[in-house]
Amino acid sequence: MAKRATIKDVAEAAGVGVATVSRVLSGGSASPQTRERVLAVAAQLDYRPSALGRNLRQRRTGGMGLLVPDLTDTFHAQLAEGVLACARSAGEPVVIGSTGGDPEQESELIGMLLEQSVDRLIAVPSGDEESWAPAIRAGMTVVFADRLPAAPPAEEDPAVSAVNDLLLLDGAAPAPARSKPLDVPSVVADDRGGIRTAVRYLRGLGHRRIAFIGGPGHDRRAAAFREAVGEPVDEELIVFGTGSRDSAYAAASGLFQSRPDLTAVVAGGNVLGEAAVLAARELDLRVPKDVSLIMYDDVPWAELCSPPLTVVAQPGRDMGYRAAELVLRSGGRRQRSVVLPTELIVRGSCGPRR
């Protein structure tokens, strides 16, 4: 028997994205040329989207999914290792996807996982709460790891979720406007406690102008930093990158150059910590003599730096394992979220303010 065409096949043949195909087939917005091309390819491939609804109604499962922003990130790799270890012990296959930190790409991957009958998912989310609502309404069991989806913007995002479109194709109603936060279990580290401990340690060394470098998903860590430094908060000392290494480096370098009076930095993740080390070296700033540095995440290279980095360690592998346990044990019951402890590991990258 010939393999049944999928929405990805249609997208590839038409030279467009999965989200575009789902918009066209559900009557959403698209240019006349794109609409005509997609419809022609769908007819040629005999694409029938009804498999999604049928598979969900029958509760057939193709294992569990795991979505992370970056598989090359050391922390995400540790988290994935924990998920795989738990799944292996349970005899469950795992489909892994990298979203690149892009909410639209994340929605496309969720749609493809649903098409493949994967109805259990662990995710380090990139999209906001609105973008996750359709997957949950479709019956997917979701557990968030490491961070939670951001609250949606005040105005509705013009990009239509691929998952929502797939539901429309099956005759289901789209997700209504969000009226309350998503009720989804999560496994996260104690960001508030970890950041507070880091700031208190730097304060004890005499530092007063302490900066924070954050990235996507670090809203809770930034909020904890503001709380820890107290009023008045110098917002110029809180900067964000977009997620890439180049963006992280630009954020760190710009911070060091615009605020030469800062004496210490807390980096919100290992990519940001790496960027801070490189930027300081490029600008001839000595660690810890000129600037003290604490990084959130303990990764192998942190001990190999000169000097070795002081870190807030969070249990990445354990986080993945616990998230997999939650998603496997769901069984229709509401699972309780888990908060894992962090630990400040003091090394050589922090010194007294001279």
Please specify the SSE layout and strand pairing:
Layout: H1 7-14, H2 18-25, H3 32-45, H4 51-58, E1 64-68, H5 74-89, E2 94-98, H6 103-115, E3 120-123, H7 129-137, E4 141-145, H8 162-169, E5 186-189, H9 191-204, E6 210-214, H10 219-229, E7 238-240, H11 245-258, E8 264-267, H12 270-282, E9 292-296, E10 310-313, H13 316-329, E11 338-340, E12 343-345
Parallel strand pairs: 1-2, 1-3, 3-4, 4-5, 5-11, 6-7, 6-8, 8-9, 9-10
Antiparallel strand pairs: 10-12
Describe the structure.
This protein is α/β, with parallel strands linked by helices and 354 residues long. It has helices spanning 7-14, 18-25, 32-45, 51-58, 74-89, 103-115, 129-137, 162-169, 191-204, 219-229, 245-258, 270-282, 316-329, and strands at 64-68, 94-98, 120-123, 141-145, 186-189, 210-214, 238-240, 264-267, 292-296, 310-313, 338-340, 343-345. It is 42% helix and 14% strand. The strands form two sheets. A six-stranded parallel β-sheet has the order 2-1-3-4-5-11, with helices on both faces. Helix 11 (245-258) packs across helix 12. The radius of gyration is 22 Å and the shape is elongated. It starts with 6 loop residues before the first helix and ends in a 9-residue tail after the last strand. Residues 50-60, 155-160 and 175-179 have low confidence and may be disordered.
